[in-house]
DNA sequence: GGGTACATGTAACTCGTTACATGATTCC
DNA sequence: GGAATCATGTAACGAGTTACATGTACCC
């Protein structure tokens, strides 16, 4: 499906970037909530995109002699990205979830052990939620308006927060079933 | 992380199964909501588990001469599974989400186009939710008690339903931001 | 001078999907 | 007899992770 291709095109479309910059974005606290990649995946993909003519680059000298490649999207790349953005694909397969898999097989654990496991899991999600909420409060005390770049950041951050809340709700529900037994 | 290994062990631990049976489970409407694999992944993994001594098999003749392999978990396999079930691992990386990635880059689409995209996506999630809800109503009109095998099915199905609801909430939230613009 | 961050690449390996390949059984 | 399902495998490829490998720039 070449999703990494479009993730990279989307970033470069905003402004020219180096492979290093792109990798940093993929590991930032907003984007990493729904897409990420290591530099070892990014650099080969950039070569591919050059071969395909979706991007071009110019070598920039940093300091004395450090060469970095600043990538820019081409007209072909931009068209390709646009087409991908509005494509009507069927729903992706549900993402895998190891904790759910464990829950599925946990019928032969004893109740105290199971309860501890679920509480441990809940704690982790509560901490993650708090961290996301802090970022939101700090960065977007007021929601930015649609059609600004900030709105993209805002709406996916909101989504990540809602996801953690739902997961915590599920774990609470799970715990209530256990304690009722 | 060998998660497939434990998914298979978890299934065989319930009762002896063939590779075909396991594959069917992975594509059933409950388990597939958080774990799945094709037969081309299952058969090689079964060979590995035999080599490791986690499972054993017996050949059963179906009809005249069709040989099928019925796999059973060994003591080693069961211990391994038990250890995995109660392991306290850090939270998994957030699952990737292509629709969120598209939302992230959508600031240069026009509002009608964006609104249509989000509505399309919502429709798909509403349909999925309805399908999950039907399975739930049909199969578990009353929640089964903890410590039964049915409870595993029930609690992960509940989770899948809650996930769809949250996703729909997010899309509604998204739409409200768009229409306010 | 030293540590951290900047910057780019390749190699080996695991995991997962799609396609190739074959044959038996069951039900109509 | 034919179609759907049961049943088991391998091959080729694509995606993703960890490790290997190298060098510069910037700040203290």
TrEMBL record, chains A, B:
Sequence ranges assigned to domain Transcription regulator PadR N-terminal in this UniProt record: 8-81
Keyword Oxidoreductase attributed: no
Sorted keywords for this record are:
DNA-binding
* Record domain Transcription regulator PadR C-terminal: where: 96-176
InterPro entries (alphabetical): Tscrpt_reg_PadR_C (IPR018309), Tscrpt_reg_PadR_N (IPR005149), WH-like_DNA-bd_sf (IPR036388), WH_DNA-bd_sf (IPR036390)
Which Gene Ontology MF annotations are present? DNA binding
Pfam family, any one: Vir_act_alpha_C
PANTHER family, A to Z: NEGATIVE TRANSCRIPTION REGULATOR PADR (PTHR43252:SF6), TRANSCRIPTIONAL REGULATOR YQJI (PTHR43252)
This one is known as DNA-binding PadR family transcriptional regulator
- UniProt source species: Youngiibacter multivorans
């Amino acid at each position: 499906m070449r999703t990494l291709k479009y993730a990279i095109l989307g970033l470069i479309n905003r402004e020219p970037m180096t492979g290093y910059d792109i990798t940093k974005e993929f590991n930032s606290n907003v984007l990493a909530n729904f897409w990420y990649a290591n530099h070892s995946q990014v650099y080969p993909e950039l070569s591919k995109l050059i071969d395909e003519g979706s991007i071009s680059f110019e070598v920039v000298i940093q300091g004395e002699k450090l060469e970095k490649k600043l990538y820019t999207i081409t007209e072909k790349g931009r068209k390709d990205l646009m087409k991908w953005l509005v494509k009507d694909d069927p729903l992706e397969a549900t993402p895998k979830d190891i904790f759910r898999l464990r829950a599925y097989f946990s019928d032969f654990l004893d109740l105290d052990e199971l309860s501890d496991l679920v509480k441990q899991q809940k704690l982790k999600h509560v901490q993650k939620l708090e961290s996301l909420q802090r970022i939101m409060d700090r960065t977007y005390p007021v929601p930015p308006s649609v059609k600004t770049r900030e709105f993209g950041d805002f709406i996916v951050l909101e989504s990540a927060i809602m996801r953690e809340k739902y997961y915590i709700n599920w774990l609470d529900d799970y715990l209530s079933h256990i304690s009722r037994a």
